[in-house]
Amino acid sequence: MTELHSVEKIGGTSMAATRTVFDNVLIGGRTGADLYRRMFVVSAFAGITDLLLEHKKNGEAGVFAQFVSDEPDADWSAALDDVRAAMRSRNNEMFTVSASCIEANQFVDDRIDTMRTCLEDLDRLRAHGQFLLTEPLATIREMLSGLGEAHSAHSTALLLRDRGVNAVFVDLTGWGDSETPTLDERISAALETIDVETTLPIITGYAASKAGTVRRYDRGYSEIIFSRLAVLSSAREAIIHKEFHLSSADPRLVGTDKARKIGRTNYDVADQLANLGMEAVHPGAGQGLRQAGISLRVRNTFDREDGGTLICSDYVSDKPRVEIITGIRSLCALQFFEQDMVGVKGFDTEILETLTRHKAWIVSKASNANTITHYLAAKSALVRRVVADLEKRFPNATITGQTVAMVSVIGSDISKPGLVAEALTALHEAGIEVMGMQYQIRNVDVQFLIDPKSFDAAVRVLHDALIMQQDKTSEKSKAA
Questions:
Q1: What is the mean pLDDT of residues 194-223?
Q2: Domain locations in the chain as residue ranges
């Protein structure tokens, strides 16, 4: 495997803009040998994985959720029909060569038919009521996840061949395999068959593994596959193509004329963004790339000429500055108060064990002598279960939950003197009350806790005060 190749990932929303992806990314004006020395990991087309599993944002049931549901109106078979129709519709829109469209649709039909047979067999088995299907259901979720990625990778490879590119479909889903190797073993075996000098590999964003890829990484699995491919193949660079630039704030909040492309930052910043749920890169993916010394570039699919934002391990801004303002609109501040906590060890450990068992996402935490507060990105039903569990274990404690928003000021070096004072002053002058604040010695982020109703305004205020103002100051310095 040459060390001059890149490993690149295309997200689902970008994949849905097929013509743009081909014109700006997959081909992008290249001809001959310039088309190669790249490997592409592709996500399922936008919306397909939601149909297969459940909607990522609103929780609407897909095939898997319908299959495991106890609701009388659940109909997984109809949901699977919807998936087939959506995949075939996508193929019919993309292909102009009829033979390729027929081949792509046949691929979809074969996979869907096999999936239906598996589900029917399990359905009959569980009807007896004497079988525990925990493990088979986990396997079904894995198989369904791979369906979407296999469809997009197979169709993309066919479309590239129609354009004269020597593309190859690389299926990591383990479809039909009798053995299930580890994730790295599966990827390494696939790499042995790839010649990046003469072919353009289009690789599924899901890979079957012994530990269960979805079980371990949930819906972030495609970025893990992308990261491991880059690491195991010693890639020159890892590139993620998204539908947006990695910007100083959400352009929809601060305005497209004010949002700035970050340009350069480091993995510390990427970790903070991932912790807040921003889709820069999955923390597990970033960890692997960072340890291997591979830089990550985030590019905008719709901005062909722009180099995007480069994320490196050793980058630190030449002078302290804020790079991005972002946050979470709704968090639960889970407060655990116990008067007898002072000087007693073990409370924090048991609370953390409970949160881990309930799979609650901890964004941040704070504590003093008798209170421990965890800020959780979790639905109210899960929080209620956590509170009930903790109340049983600590009957003398007072445990409450409060909804808050968190706005975070992030940068590779934000040690600018007076920055926190500037932020607090700006928020105060805008009439935004700060309920709490966290500032780490590492000088990477400051977190402000506010009323959720003030989230949009707080992002705009802090962006104007800490980013727009520093740009004006920089411009004045250059002019002088």
A1: 92
A2: 6-243, 324-479
